Amino acid sequence: MQKRDLLYAGKAKSVYLSDDPQRLVLHFRDDTSAFDGKKKEALERKGMVNNKFNAFIMEKLQAAGIPTHFEQLLSDTECVVKKMEMIPVECVVRNLAAGGLVRRLGVEEGIELAPPTFELFLKNDEKGDPMINESLAETFGWATPAQLSTMKSLTFQVNDVLKQLFLDGGMLLVDYKLEFGVFEGEIVLGDEFSPDGCRLWDAETREKLDKDRFRQGLGGVIEAYEEVGRRLGMTFD
Asked: In its UniProt record, which GO terms are filed under biological process (predicted)?
């Protein structure tokens, strides 16, 4: 697989064309940002850690029957993915109250949400990724009812797999966001799954082991990411 021209550069990843018109090369950079890009920093080893972390999780999800765009690692910081038509709607599941939910509703951080909540957000950095509903997504053509139904079902399937995976490693999967696309007519999980896009707490101490360490200036961001990986059996050497 040969990397070709840059197709798109996001806040933390770059996407390149390849010599296969149906495949892209996803490059995980060391860049880190929060608050819609208002806080930025380059963290050494982050690209490598997130690339390998994402590959591990995507392979676990594929083994559970969940279709993903991930195909193979290409280097320490790059992987090969399917070239999809992305759906501009983010799916968020919350198992415990944290982050935006606490700010919006004034509920106590850390309370268990039973059943877990499911939310939709429009992927639009300029507008701050506003919360939307299924009706808005359909009306404005961001996603069809059938696509939304499949995305919701897959998002909860991911929850079933990963809640137990992280719990086995002594961690709580607090919440996470997923993005989907269409490949050969099928809804497929895209983007990445890493501590950048989810919240993970130690099950006993509730120490934060995710991007909130960067958002809140707690330090030890990459060390926490690597600790999560080690608990799951990953190696980053």
From this structure: 'de novo' IMP biosynthetic process; cobalamin biosynthetic process
